[in-house]
């Protein structure tokens, strides 16, 4: 039995709905495996702006730092779209990633047999896809200074800067190699080295790191080609490692290999403090408040938390197995439902996964009694 303190940041829009679902799933895991999970709640994003006047209140950050791990829903929404840059919900997300040194964002893309019809792609292209996008999360184009607008010689000018220190590239590429070593031993480093100086340095560093991993194959791929190859032949990939914005875009694209943006979890890892777990999707204002969102990306993110932050492998597997079982039984939220399949709500999907986790536990207990 373990005691864990989990900071929960629901955020905005569907972030709130899917986070509520993930907490219920974790409570079921705690019941089945006799753990104590203490959930502490904090504000981030739009709601934090409304209540505290800032997208990342100090108390939220302090609470996260004092927890064993953080679960985050999503932030943003049209209500705040016209706010000045420092009062945009997304600033809160970028700030927590930077402040907590969450430099490695792991975005696994896994194919589910039962969702074969949910992807617009052909079965033979997506069947057995199992790849991992390793996205650099605290540097690159989303953080470089200068960034902003100004008027120069009477002309309105805007700038964003793609900036990396050598060590920042080295640590994310090394993380990718370490992960590939435990998988199919191939790293695809994605860049735009035909144009960008930052990419040329990225490539150079990837080559240097590769020397320490002779058992892992390194290939380089330009990002535009990578976007195409993900659709043409995704099975060629094992681990992809790339700059912050490239990884952001490629992972939304890759989510369709799994059938929906609502299926992809992620882990935002730090080596100097607690890590954070978040679905790859946003706050989905178009479906927010309608009990329609697919909670699986968030639920699978909580499984990643159990495995990577707490070392609770069996518990993580119990969640993943329940998700698989529920999908196999035909439960579908609207985003993955096809051909007249019955559609379930967010809450129904959560309830079914929860029941499966608890039932599985009960069956195993009965088997243990009669063994
Ligand atoms: N991690 C975060 O907090 C992120 C926040 N955002 C913010 O979210 C807001 C909306 O951005 P969008 O570009 O619309 O991206 P989005 O990821 O929120 O939604 C894109 C599309 O996917 C659908 N979708 C997303 N998650 C889903 C789920 N779990 N189940 C079913 N359908 C789902 C939405 O309904 C929408 O049609 C913006 O304010 C944006 O800045 C966007 C991405 C990540
Ligand atoms: C604020 C954005 C960088 C959020 C996003 O799209 C993501 O992290 O995937
Ligand atoms: Mg994104």
Task: Give a written overview of the molecule.
Belongs to the isocitrate and isopropylmalate dehydrogenases family. LeuB type 1 subfamily. Its EC number is 1.1.1.85. This is 3-isopropylmalate dehydrogenase. It catalyses: (2R,3S)-3-isopropylmalate + NAD(+) = 4-methyl-2-oxopentanoate + CO2 + NADH. It is found in: Cytoplasm. The chain has 371 residues and is of the alpha/beta class. The chain has two domains: 218 residues, Isopropylmalate Dehydrogenase; 138 residues, Isopropylmalate Dehydrogenase (3-Layer(aba) Sandwich). It is 42% helix and 21% strand. The chain has twelve helices and twelve strands. It has a ten-stranded mixed beta sheet, with helices on both faces. The two termini are 23 Å apart. 2-OXO-4-methylpentanoic acid (COI) binds next to α4.
Note the gap between the termini. Answer: 23 Å
Chain oligomer state: single chain
Put simply, the count of helices is 12
How many beta strands in the DSSP annotation?
Answer: 12
> CATH homologous superfamily of the largest domain, by name?
Isopropylmalate Dehydrogenase
CATH class of the largest domain reads Alpha Beta
Major sheet description? 10 strands, mixed
Protein structure class: alpha/beta
Helix fraction bin = 40-55%
The percentage of residues in β strands lies in: 15-25%
Bound molecules: 1,4-dihydronicotinamide adenine dinucleotide, 2-OXO-4-methylpentanoic acid, magnesium ion
Q: For the CA atoms, what is the radius of gyration?
A: 21 Å
Spatial arrangement of strands, main beta sheet: 2-1-3-12-11-4-5-10-8-9
Question: Which regions are unreliable across 5 or more consecutive residues at pLDDT < 50?
Answer: none
One letter per element, helices H and strands E, the order comes to EHEHHEHEHEEEHEHEHEHEEHHH
CATH architecture of the largest domain: 3-Layer(aba) Sandwich
What name is given to the CATH topology of the largest domain? Isopropylmalate Dehydrogenase
| Principal-axes shape call | globular
EC number: 1.1.1.85
Pfam family, one: Iso_dh
Protein name: 3-isopropylmalate dehydrogenase
Cofactor: Mg(2+); Mn(2+)
């Amino acid at each position: 039995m373990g005691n864990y303190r989990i900071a929960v940041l629901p955020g905005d829009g569907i972030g709130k709905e899917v986070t509520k679902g993930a907490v219920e799933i974790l409570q079921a895991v705690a019941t089945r495996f006799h753990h104590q999970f203490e959930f502490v709640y904090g504000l981030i994003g739009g709601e934090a702006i409304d209540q505290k006047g800032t997208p990342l209140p100090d108390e939220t950050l302090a609470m996260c730092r004092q927890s064993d791990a953080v679960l985050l829903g999503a932030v943003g929404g049209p209500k705040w779209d016209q706010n000045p840059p420092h009062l945009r919900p997304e600033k809160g997300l970028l700030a927590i990633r930077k402040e907590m040194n969450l430099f490695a964002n792991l975005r696994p893309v896994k194919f589910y047999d039962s969702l074969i019809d949910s992807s617009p792609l052909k079965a033979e292209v997506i069947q057995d896809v199992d790849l991992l996008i390793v996205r650099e999360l605290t540097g690159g184009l989303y953080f470089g200074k200068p960034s902003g607008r100004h008027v120069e010689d009477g002309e309105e000018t805007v700038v964003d800067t793609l900036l990396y220190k050598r060590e920042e590239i080295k640590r994310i590429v090394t993380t990718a190699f370490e992960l590939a070593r435990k998988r199919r031993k191939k790293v695809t480093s994605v860049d735009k080295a035909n144009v960008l100086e930052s990419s040329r340095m990225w490539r150079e560093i990837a080559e240097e790191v590769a020397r320490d991993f002779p058992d892992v194959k390194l290939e380089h791929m330009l990002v535009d080609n990578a976007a195409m190859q993900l659709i043409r032949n995704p099975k060629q990939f094992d681990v992809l490692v790339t700059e912050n914005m490239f990884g952001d875009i490629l992972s939304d694209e890759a989510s369709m290999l799994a059938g929906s943006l609502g299926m992809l979890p992620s882990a935002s890892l730090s080596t100097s403090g607690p890590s954070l777990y978040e679905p790859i999707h946003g706050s989905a204002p178009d479906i927010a408040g309608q009990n329609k969102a697919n909670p699986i990306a968030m639920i699978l993110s909580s499984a990643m938390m159990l495995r990577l932050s707490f070392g609770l492998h069996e518990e993580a597997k119990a969640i993943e197995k329940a998700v698989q079982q529920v999908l196999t039984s035909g439960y579908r939220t609207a985003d993955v439902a096809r051909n007249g399949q019955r559609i379930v709500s967010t809450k129904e999907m959560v309830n079914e996964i929860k029941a499966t986790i608890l039932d599985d536990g009960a069956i195993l207990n009965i088997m243990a009694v009669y063994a």
